[in-house]
# Entry
Amino acid sequence: MDKILRIDVGSQGGPKAVETGLGDYEGLGGRAMTSGIISKEVPPLCHPLGADNKLVIAPGMLSGSAAAMSGRLSVGCKSPLTGGIKESNSGGQGAQVLARLGYAAIVLEGKPSNDTLYKVVINHDGVKIEADNSLKMLGNYDLVDKIKDTYGEKFCSISIGPAGEMKLSAATIAITDMEQRPTRHAGRGGVGAVMGSKGIKAIILDDTGCKMRKPKDPEAFKAANKEFVAGIKKHPVSGEGLPAFGTNVLTNVLNEAGGYPTRNFSSGQFEGAGKISGETLAELETSRGGKATHGCHTGCIIKCSGTFHDKDGNYLTKQPEYETIWAHGGNCCIDDLDAIAMLDRLDDDFGIDTIEMGATIGVAMEAGLAEFGDAEAAINFVKQVGEGTPLGRILGNGAEVTGKVFGVERIPVVKGQAMPAYDPRAVQGIGVTYATTTQGADHTAGYAVATNILGVGGNVDALKPEGQIELSRNLQIATAAIDATGMCLFIAFPILDQPETFQALVDLLNGFHGLSLTADDVSALGKSILTKEREFNAGAGFTSKHDRLPEYFKNEKLAPHGVTFTVSDEELDQVFNW
Amino acid sequence: MIKIDLNLFVTLSEYLPENSDCFEIPEDTTVEKLMNDLGVPKDIVKLIFINGQRKEISYQLKNEDRVGIFPPVGGG
# Structure
């Protein structure tokens, strides 16, 4: 991982690839790499779909090694959805394969001179870029099948669907999993639209003939990995709960806590929650021959995913995540798992963010475009996005655009990005993260739900403002650092509760890179990433006034607790005052 | 006697008694005693929600409480 691949898509005669050394970016990985390059090389005021924006794709510091859980791929750019910096990361095989091919980053830059679509093929022998207009407007599933015809069964693809080609702000970048299914997505912030603006449909990676990355201190690394794996296995969340029931185990939890956003964030409980819960989903999956436990990348030992089969027992989609089931389910009052799974499949195929899409449909339903609970209408909305009808293009640009077009006041976004599956009035810590993160409303940026609701990393009362600023601050710093390592964020459950597992993570970094980092150094890494991101956003015009929730969260009480968001603006402004 | 709406989730569901949504218990029952009476191992009880609020296992149950109990879980 000692080189960066830069592809200038604006070169005469089509995209040109140049390999460079790491230079200023030596030692960086994941989010530290993407936000490092974006903050240094991209003018903050540039148009997100223009020549000056760049799309950076980077494996983490430990990706491509034998470290468990090290397969997250970071994708960075200026976001067309938020107008700020974006790091959207994903599972799938991308990080492991790209790291083994030796690349610390791929950077797409410039602006194409025409609308020819290209594919980039990277293997042991080098890089080839080919025009291929036969790929135009293919869904991710058909695209991968077509790639298989030429490149066989061993590649990993990083691709966009029709939504990315249409440069819609909810467009994702799909990454294939171990079964070559395009089920893992850098979902948030419209990164797919930026890839579309560069005229690149797919990056096809094949690491045949490449070796696993070797640690500088093999003995220390091996010992740390053993301790790390043991820590993940022994924690009840990562060792038992997530493998058995997946992320959707949270449906019943958040519903019981009264923090499950229902009917476009107008209530905190959904009466149909039991029908779409993780328990119900796991039973349905296994009864149809699907799997309730499945890993998304080589080296995953938590295996929180699964496979969802339709009523006839045929593969339809991967196990939809909690966020997806909430967004398309409870948020739209849809309690039919088959309909939600179909929406998940369509989102993955067209390349659309499931959170943004579900939140958008909730707003559309509030606007009266369909009744809440109308699953058929929801499916039709998503199909229109894929087809690019005028309504589909509005919806595909997210909740804020849709709310404006149809005159809706209750639009659950921060910095233009839709909130995920936790109402900030009943889970006030996550409200602080939504408001203040550089990313726009994003639960993964500082998952205060763990401590507010799940009793992980201690306990802070979810319904009160006290302690939420410090909680969100510490989690945002730690998360930024984890996002640099390439580690799956679900390692946070054991490392928050078990100091020895956190130490094992630090020892993994040290053993692999021959460093002597301490916990303080890891914290400093997180802070340096956040600082760069905030500087970029300030340059793009963001002020503290953008670190706020929409007004109605302060004014409208949420049932069943009758609460509003009560963390003050002055407190919110202290999150980055470390 | 008082009546509670008892919900046991995930791996605890196997301990759910009949008539759980209108379950009769003596007035001075704590969550800990209820778990003991139902045979739920205390060490797998992690999250206790009473009417949507997190409570300790020493919480004394009241008439018409909605009770939701989980083992350790996480997601996101």
User: Anything to note?
Assistant: DSSP finds one helix and five strands in chain B. Chain B has one domain: 2-70. The beta strands of chain B are 2-8, 23-25, 47-50, 53-54, 66-70.
